[in-house]
Predict the 3D structure of the following.
Amino acid sequence: METGWLTLSPEEWTAVALSLKVASVGTLASLPFGVAIAWLLARREFWGKSLVNGLVHLPLILPPVVTGYLLLLSFGRRGPIGAVLEETFGLVFSFRWTGAALAAAVMGFPLMVRAIRLSMEAVDTRLEAAASTLGARPLIVFLTVTLPLSLPGVLAGMILGFAKAMGEFGATITFVSNIPGETQTLPSAIYSFIQVPGGETGALRLTLVAIAIAFAALIASEVLARRLSSRIEGR
Amino acid sequence: MLSFDLRQRLGDFHLDARFSGSGRLTALFGVSGSGKSSLIALLAGLSRPDDGVIEVGGRTLVDTGRGIFVPPHRRRIGCVFQEARLFPHLSVINNLDYGRRFSGQARDPKAMARVVELLGIGHLLDRGPSALSGGEKQRVAIGRALMAGPRLLLLDEPLASLDEARKAEILPYIERLRDEGDIPIVLVSHSVAEVARLASDMVVLSDGKVATSGTVADVLGRLDLMPEEMRSEGGAVLEMQVTSYDPRFDMSVLEAAAGRIHMPGDCGPAGRRLRVRIRARDVMIATGRPHGLSALNVLDGKIAAIVESGRAFVEVHVDCAGSRVIARITRQSAEGLELARGCAVHAVVKTVSLDSPHPPHNPEVT
């Protein structure tokens, strides 16, 4: 049997590389916010907590197209946030790969926050109390006790966010369209292939790549999580 | 110097406690539910009183009237909790160093060496907390609290989760801390034996209130002021000195002006000072010198007071050369023997009823 059909074309490579870039940047850039929000939800009582919780989970419940359209309205060049960001930082989202990363981050955010929050809630607050009686300020307690002890959850959150980002389609295509080399991620590329006659082999190739990446991420997270938890238990 | 005057309502429980003292080691004593833990959380700054004042060493930590509340990380109160609470992701040495490092104090290898030596934890430094026994964990937790440079040390039932052998392992370290250190200590305990052995002063908490407080000898001697639930544990506390040890019977002899006491086990070298608690219910009174008696300890004295204790019992306070020994006997016996103030009597104590600081040798216990 001929195996030449397995070789990716340059356009397909571009889509795969772009997807990896978009998902990685989206995940890493949203991580600090994810950790902060998760900590707020896990450890603090404040007015409007349920509202924050609801907002964070909104992308999980809304149709992705709606999320993408909302992003277009607010982060588009004429949107209230998009205009400010372009003026002050020169940061443009609409129809750029950065927009795809933003869409990926927003869609993965609820999953990331959820995983981190759960593992932070599992950290014994009595250890935090002990740390404060030893003279550590609240920020230090967070950095030296809460965060290290919830690292497995942070890692799980990152993997979940990354996986969601890799698969994100609806919000991305609504917000930044489907421009090869700029915003055409792996799912968009597969979608495009299926739209044209004779594109099935390309779609199949990219599907195999998507499966491979998903597996690699899963195995990497397993290995890392095991190492982390054995370090946390102090062996 | 520690003083507090606190009120806090937690559900149905109401704490209203007032105390001021400057003992080397003050015991907070009470049964579970008496408010010890609430009080400790308030002192450490882990909870806020509804209203009240806390002062430690002349520094006001809480004064609700003036709006003062110093957060826990600025109180410099070292805490040792019942469950040790070591950081599981840090090695023993990093646990010890945590307080110094994260409260911004300079590195002091001498202080570290002193603490490590004092607690005998030198061989544990590179281990993780999960590889330690319960007693070792508590010693590391004490070291960790000391290394943070505290002005007051709170020990919240550090022995409660340990078995007898582990307790016996920790007790001498707490004694060294009391005798060699200069940090005042507050020890929470529900064991009278522990309090009698370790504490100089005690505060008895009952149902959220301070039932009585004072030196350990005074408090344990005033059975009439004690809450009902601990009255059977009350009695005299005598300062005594070890004079000899007889390995043949595994028995030590201790002496004080009051007389001589036999204590089971090896109580250490001659000259060592020990506190001996003699429960009032374990003391018999004889009007003549007893003969043919198995009890080894007979202290001679004069009756200083007879205190009624309900209809069935009386407490006979016997003055033995300046020290007071208390006997709880039936009123029937007291009348039968025609006991009265000034009578010369003999107080008889079974050696078996004394808590030895060093349990008798037993080959099965390592």
